[in-house]
Amino acid sequence: MISILKLSFCQNTEEATTVDLILVGRTGEGKSRTGNSILDSQSFEVSNHTYSETANVCWGSRDYNGKELVVLDTPGLKDTRRTVEEGSKMIHKMLKEQMIISPKGYSAFLYIIKYPLRVTEDNMRDIKMFEQILNTDFARSHGILVMTGGDSFDADKPDGQLFEDWCRREEGNFQKLRRKFRNRVILFDNMTQDETKKCEQLNRLLSSVETLEQSNGRYTDNQFESGSFKDVSDVTFRLLLTTLQQPITVDDLPDLSSKCAQHKRVISKSAADKLETIRVQINKTFRESRKSTNSQENSASTFSEDINMINDLASNLQYGNTHEAAITGGKLLLGPQV
């Protein structure tokens, strides 16, 4: 779902930049409402059900203060229709696809929780799961904790109490979670109609995102694909080359891109360069397949041509490997990381 909006009343003439945000969290915590608040539109469906209204990754964008804000809303983690394992696999698959669609990476992950707080061990397990999927301590290096229900918080807090002071006094799992995110906690009121308040909370969020991005950079597919290589071997490399020369569907592309990224780290420099060329072509083909600007017939024709190119590149790489192995005594090109 795409939403292109006009600048809000608090725009200025800053040089345009892109801020790419991914919303993650458990079902019912206000994730989609937060996305709507950031975009100042009803871009994402919301509900109070125990299952996620977001079945796929949805995204919207908006111009704000000279920046293009791009927001991705992911399915909720606690969905009564899915097991924990199914939810984890689904999130992994969707994030893998988003890494391909946005090669420049993402500015920050926003983990959404709701006031009144119900931070449990499940939330801590969520963070662990994302660390495993993203191959990084994502909360520390690329995460911001966003607490929704700002309207309820304002109604409950003692007069004059600052949100930051309240955060420091909270104990238990919330304190553990806050420390995970290096005290980056932003309060959001998704119900307010006060334009000044809307701008203030969004500006606080963007300031935190900017500081985070300046310190740690964007999260990119290089980090996503930097996990374990225990399944990488001569045999799996040969199988990958064989697969790349066969008919390929759109659904195959994300997994093939990941396998190329994994193998190119442990093969010779010359082979790795060729494999990276294949991966770039795979990613380009996947992005183009997600566009709907051309007719279906033209899209099918272009896709077929792209797959043929991938097949040819893989065939050339396999021939090069066979030739080099022949003159080096049969040793394949696997070796030290490059």
UniProtKB/TrEMBL annotation:
Annotated keywords: GTP-binding, Nucleotide-binding
GO molecular function: GTP binding
Gene3D superfamilies for this protein: P-loop containing nucleotide triphosphate hydrolases
Sequence ranges assigned to domain AIG1-type G in this UniProt record: 16-228
Family membership noted in the UniProt record: Belongs to the TRAFAC class TrmE-Era-EngA-EngB-Septin-like GTPase superfamily. AIG1/Toc34/Toc159-like paraseptin GTPase family. IAN subfamily.
Name of this chain's protein: Immune-associated nucleotide-binding protein 7
Species of origin: Elysia marginata
